[in-house]
Amino acid sequence: MTEDEAPGRPPTRAHIEAHGSGSGGAGGGSQSAEISTRLNWLRAGVLGANDGIISTAGLVVGVAGATTSRSVIFAAGIAGLLAGALSMAAGEYVSVSSQRDSERAALDLERRELAEEPEAELDELTDMLAARGLSRDLAREAAEQLTERDALRAHARVELGINPDELANPWHAALASLVAFTVGALLPLLAIILPGPSARVPVTVVAVLVALTLCGVVSARLGRAPAGRAVLRNVGGGALAMAVTYAVGTWLGAAG
């Protein structure tokens, strides 16, 4: 098995990858992988909250354009919150379950290869360690020691970038997405319900744009990207969603 055959999937909101590149089981590599995992989960949480803010804001602002009934707006907002949160959770569960199945399949294949061709696997591990900057002799010695200690773990770390003890957990991903979306959705829901009829939409728009600005800054920091561009995309998308749904809601309210 080569490095190009390692299973995986591109990062998604939900969803996002739970493992670093690995470093042959060394303490520094393990710590780096753990930090990467935490950052990825935090980034996924921010994106989930961002989705909750935008989708719920678009929904309640649109309904507010059609009616001034607080109960109708509240019912629509709660329905959108529940539907969105459950949809996010289900999507993450399915996505991460597929990732975990791929990880298990890769580990099973590696286990068979180690049992059937141990010398070839030792040579392969040596080559991968040498490719990371070790001298050939030192790479061979390291490969032998890692194989003697735990061959499967060594290949999982170095070749696949997988920690066998920390496979992606679909239930954790589903719960994290559900909570993140719900927290984000509560902001526009409360902003549209608490003020009086004349202030509902302006208050919601301001609250949502401020929240989207913060989400853009945080996501940019986590991704080490320029904050200005991320904030502009985030705020622009949210503003467009609210403008479109409010216009449609107003038109439907007038037509009705």
Topology:
Elements: H1 27-66, H2 70-116, H3 118-131, H4 136-160, H5 170-193, H6 200-223, H7 227-255
How would you portray this structure in words?
With 256 residues, the chain is an all-alpha fold. It has one domain. The protein has helices at 27-66, 70-116, 118-131, 136-160, 170-193, 200-223, 227-255. The longest helix is centred in the middle third of the chain and has 47 residues, at 70-116.
Shape: elongated
Structural class: mainly alpha
Radius of gyration in whole Å, from Cα? 24 Å
% residues in beta strands: under 5%
Q: Number of helix segments? A: 7
Give me some keywords for this one.
disordered N terminus, single chain, mainly alpha
Outline of the structure:
Helix content is 79%, strand content 0%. It is built from seven helices and no strands.
